[in-house]
Specification:
Elements: H1 8-30, H2 32-36, H3 38-58, E1 62-64, E2 67-69, H4 73-103, H5 107-129, H6 132-157, H7 164-233, H8 239-264, E3 275-278, H9 279-296, E4 299-305, E5 309-312, H10 314-330, E6 336-345, E7 348-355, H11 362-367, H12 383-393, E8 397-403, E9 407-415
Parallel strand pairs: 4-6
Antiparallel strand pairs: 1-2, 3-5, 6-7, 7-9, 8-9
The structure holds adenosine-5'-diphosphate (ADP) and magnesium ion (MG).
């Protein structure tokens, strides 16, 4: 038993802890349940840390009379520092039960780990407010402090022998190891946070790009109108020329109106809000808006929508579906049938917009959503682009199924809001 400073089990113990940290972050990253609910995250932390806790005790560095040496305090301290009482207390229970099952009851263990729990849990709130470098300094310090405190407690309440191996394996190795572990934990959580931020920034970008391009588009016709109005001011214009100028100006104004219709019908000055969207209700509103237009073209609309909620801006949602439904109506100049369905599949809402209109060629399908692509005489080619961008910001997808002279079916899938 003499001098086993560092043996294979030290490395094994570190390995167990590292792997469980990776597993924890992997699951947080890939399972949305853990991203949304704090309680599940805490539960996951308890599970992920109790595995190395148990494995450390199962494969200790060495066993001396009265004490078993391993790195179990590392997962325990990490869990309690990051998770507070909620994580620390279950970990303590698991630690004590497993210790006694493996090696029998020992009251020094109970006293030492309860002390550790109290110190770390009280300190947890302050610790979580620290930045990375402060955590990197404080975690080893607290581990060192706890190791010294435990040693003093052990020496005072029993005739505990402090040996060289004890100093190395219980005081020095954990203090250094926790530095690396905290570093890795902070690195992983920072990388994950950065990515979420980046996605948000990207979404904002889409919206502001859209606004910029549309205002640019509206400005062009307005400039033309301005020019012709100025020309109209000049004296000695024949009535014919005047009429021509007015006609052009009106045409351009109409174009500006169409562009605004495709983007800003519902826009209010209020900033974009994230709210709960009642899909069935909003779809019915859109249907009501296009119904007069449909009636004019003898199109029958049959909505069959099921209730379900998603998240986003109601304004944008209405704009998006108005653009899509309007296209469907415009695709049936000689009448037809427009079907609007919505139903739930797993955690998604599927919305189908089906028309029996002119349909699209494969080339048109591939250009769908491209800005300024339009086959209509007075088309803007902005409606589908706006709709697609809105679906994108809502984390949804759009699928097109179309055949010339048969009709088009659009399938939009949006994430369902969990109650
Ligand atoms: P616009 O309606 O002003 O032409 P959009 O961006 O709304 O611009 O639509 C772009 C093009 O996509 C349309 O000109 C049309 O060719 C095609 N398209 C969109 N929806 C349909 C549909 N339901 N059926 C047939 N073609 C469609
Ligand atoms: Mg359109």
């Amino acid at each position: 038993m003499d001098f086993i400073f560092i043996n294979q089990n030290v490395l094994n113990d570190l390995f167990y802890i590292l792997v469980s940290i990776f597993v924890y972050y992997f699951l947080i990253d890939h399972v949305s349940l853990f991203q949304k609910y704090r309680h599940y995250r805490q539960l996951l932390m308890v599970v992920c840390l109790s595995v190395p806790l148990i494995l450390c005790m199962r494969f200790p560095i060495y066993i001396a009379p009265n004490c078993v040496h391993d790195l179990r305090q590392l997962p325990f301290i990490i869990g309690t520092l990051y998770g507070g009482w909620t994580v620390g207390l279950p970990l303590l229970m698991i630690l004590l039960i497993v210790r006694f099952v493996f090696y029998g009851y020992n009251y020094i263990t109970v006293v030492i780990y309860i002390t550790m729990l109290i110190v770390c849990a009280i300190y947890s709130r302050t610790f979580n407010q620290f930045n990375r470098s402060q955590k990197l300094v404080m975690a080893p310090m607290i581990t060192f402090f706890l190791a010294i405190l435990s040693t003093i407690i052990a020496v005072v309440i029993s005739d505990f022998q402090v040996t060289d191996t004890y100093i190395i394996d219980f005081i020095i190795v954990p203090t250094i190891a926790i530095l690396f572990l905290i570093y890795i934990i902070e690195l992983l959580s920072e990388a994950m946070m950065m990515r979420t931020k980046l996605i948000k920034v990207e979404k904002m970008e889409i919206v502001s790009q859209l606004a910029a391009s549309i205002s640019h588009e509206v400005r062009n016709p307005l400039t033309v109108v301005q020019g012709f109005m100025q020309l109209l001011k000049s004296p000695n214009l024949s009535k014919e020329i005047k009429d021509q100028y007015i006609h052009i100006a009106l045409e351009e104004l109409n174009r500006a109106k169409l562009i605004i219709d495709d983007y800003l019908t519902f826009a209010k000055p209020a900033p974009e809000k994230v709210e709960t969207i009642d899909v069935d209700r909003e779809l019915k509103k859109v249907v009501d808006i296009v119904r007069p237009l449909a009636n004019m073209n003898s199109i029958t609309i049959s909505p069959d929508v099921h209730s379900g909620c998603t998240i986003g801006s109601i304004q944008y949602f209405q704009q998006c579906f108005l653009n899509l439904v309007k296209n469907a109506v415009e695709a049936m100049p000689n009448g037809g049938e427009l079907t609007i369905l919505s139903y739930l599949i797993d955690d998604h809402i599927v919305i189908k917009i089906k028309d029996t209109g002119i349909g699209m060629t494969p080339e048109q399908i591939s250009r769908y959503g491209e800005p300024y692509f339009s086959t209509k005489e007075k088309g803007t080619g902005l409606g589908t682009m706006v709709a697609l961008k809105i679906i994108q910001t809502m984390n949804g997808t759009l699928e097109i199924d179309s055949a010339v002279n048969k009709g088009t079916t659009l399938t939009i899938t949006l994430p369902l809001k969990e109650e």
